Amino acid sequence: MQPDPLTRRNLLHMGAGLGVGLGAASTARDPRGMGGTPPAPRSVLLILVDQHRFDHAGFVGHPLATTPHLDQLAAEAVRVEACYAAVPLCAPARQSLVTGLPASSHGTFRNRHAAAEGEDTVFHRLTSAGYHTTFVGKTHCNVEGFARVLSQEALFERCRDQNPGAQFAGEGRILTDRPVAVPFLEPYNPRLETAGEGTIFHMEAAVTDEALAALRSTPKDRPFFLTASYLAPHPPLFPPEEFLDLYRGVPVEADRAYRAKATALPQDLRRRRRGQRALQIQDEQADNAVRAYLASLAWTDHCVGRLLEGLGELGLAEDTLVVYTSDHGELLGQHGLFGKRAFYEGASRVPLLVRDPGRLEAGAIRPRVVSHLDLAATFLHWGGVAPGTLPGRDLRPLLRGDQELEWRDEARLESSDGLGLPEEGQLVQPEEARPPEAMSWCLRSGPWKYMATGAGEAELYDLREDPGEQRNLAADSGHAEVVAHCAARLRAASPARWTFHRTDDGREGLPR
What we know:
Helix content is 27%, strand content 17%.
């Protein structure tokens, strides 16, 4: 089903009612399932990786990505072309995925995560509904709803207990006191060094092993929901040496935007870019960061391949719905920046593959816009659990290719510049259509990408004509109606008071 053409004129005639979320406009003839009968609960394997941007994979045509196992999964799955993280940052994105709520409701905007007392999650509900729920790997969110959790910290401590000298990948290699060191780039492995000597803890291998062990011990009398949560390709980018060897000396075309002055970015991103530019990144360092990212992605693909192969060997592949996605993306030098915490496509848009043998069309591509909030709500639909007031939409009709589905191509994102935020409490949305001070929001609506900050800065991009988001149309009088419409939709979908709660005991991404 092809997306409806969206122009400035017909954009304004789309329904105005949003309620709390952006999902009210999606309907299908049979929302319950095939033939009008509620489907039996499905066992689900969620493969959640960290920092995998949407356009770095063989299945989307990237010329250098080594992802044979993900390519095979894509050939057997439905791929949704434009899936967005609710927040382009680890802990807030993951918290949205487990709660089904935007950050303005669940309150986590930084990587210092806190679970509110009595907080309800999608996985509390699935566990209560009879699912055997297990989480293995990087947490960085509220995982109390899972019946069993084996975190990255527990995995590393187990490895160190068995091997007292064990180190995590990159330990001892991330050095900032060398003359050629660029501190923020160090975890990106700008020298393309190996992980080190002795016993090295690669979390991806440990997650794969433990996920397979969990599958082997899954009760046979009820469905399971297993989350295998990988750290890579999030820095530190120190995969096993054979994967680094894939890219040594390989020509890459890293974006050189880090050389330019930051004049066309929002204030927060201008600060980041000035700081990074002042460190005088060398081209070879940037290129090696890209090589290391591709090597880390190849390593992740290898581990995902092992997990999927094991799922088949255990006889579970035909009866298990497999979902592959990432919590957010990676800029890799685009717009002069590395990392995430930006609404630009590289940081906020992620892969979404869903395989359900015999139920979903293998190799189908749905050229639609969805959000992780939709995915969270769909987890409940798959489990036969009513999603209640969650703002996300049911993705099942879209995945099936329901010809009578009316789908609004929209995704809402939120973020924060991290400055001046309270540790607890709320911020009030201004009367005008913009987010609270120090906050920002974004709407992907059809081909349009609109972003605005609490300081009154705005950006608008037409992704059909400008996929690299280089020409900001927000101040163009010819696009004033689009800007006003997007701002109004964001305001209507946002709570008047944005919630904050967090503690200082969260993790910043390293598995220790």
